Each structure stands twice: as C-alpha cells, then as structure tokens.
Model the fold of this input.
Amino acid sequence: MNSQYVSSLPNDIISVWRQLFERQHAFALHAFNQLNDEQFFTILAPGLNSCAIIANHLAGNMLSRWTDFLTSDGEKPTRDRDTEFELPTQLTAEQRSRIMERFEHGWQVLFDAVDSLNSEDLSKIVTIRKIEHPVHAAIARQLDHYSFHIGQINIIARQLVGTDAWEWFTLAPGTTKAFNAKLMGEN
Done:
C-alpha cells in the first residue's frame, strides 16, 4: 500500500472506528432489550430474518473476520455462514441467551482486534475470501455491513414493539427542534 496514502489518514482513525463500532453495538442492544423472547425469534414475513437470526449472523461474521484479523483470511474455514440464517429449533429464553452470548463474544473479538491496531497496521493488507483489502477498507466494509444489519434489527424490533411503546435510541420523531434549541443554548 502507498505509505503516503496511509499517512493521510487521520491520527485518530482507529479510535474513531472503535467509537463507531461501540455505537452500533449499543444500538443493537437497545433494540434487543425491548424485545421479549417470542419477539426476538419472530420473522415478520417470508424471506425476512428475525432479530435472532441477524444476531447469530453478525456473531458468525465477527468471529470469522476479526479472529487473527491481520494474519489470516477473514473467511475462516470453520465458519458455516448458511447455518447462521437458520432459525433455531428451540425458541426459548435459553436459546436466546446462547445467541446473545455468541453475539457478545463476537463483539469482544472485534473490540480486541481494533484495540490491538496501531498506525503501522494501517499500511497492511488483509484478505477476505482471498481478496486483498487495505486494513482501512476492510474495517469500512465491516462497519457498513454491521450498520446495515443493525438497522434491520431496529426496524424489525420497532415493528414488533410498536411505535407508541418504542424507546428511541436516537431522537424521537417531532423532538429535533427542541433538542437543537437546547443544544444550541436557545432555550
């Protein structure tokens, strides 16, 4: 990779990535915490996924991509992506707990990998399915992927909980002007 390009990346890029991943993690947990066990496993329509399936898929992706991030292909031979999209046979609180443990383990592997990065690592190349990616591009790819699925989780959860009962992670509709006025000291 061209070292001139890497030197043009902001000095705080790794901490910015960490913050963005933390926000996505929090956004997902915020949605999961509003769902009961039945809702966690609910598929709203044929061809869609439940929050449980998406959480399981994200966990599988994180464990594959972030384990030995700089030294091995991001698609590990031990990963079975297709099974990540299968609804478990038992839709119980215990099964939900297993999925969430795996989800949290995936995030911990991700956070450990990001925390281990330093500025010299930004000039390295990693592979995903044998395709080379500069480290910054591989990380951007994962941020994009996780944001997409966590958005899905929030849309599904909001449909299941109902708009009136939904607790907003971001500003609730109709509250932007008051929030901005308070933030800008106009109140």
In short: The chain has one domain: 3-183. The chain has a mean pLDDT of 92. The beta strands are 125-128, 131-134. The first helix runs from residue 3 to 7.
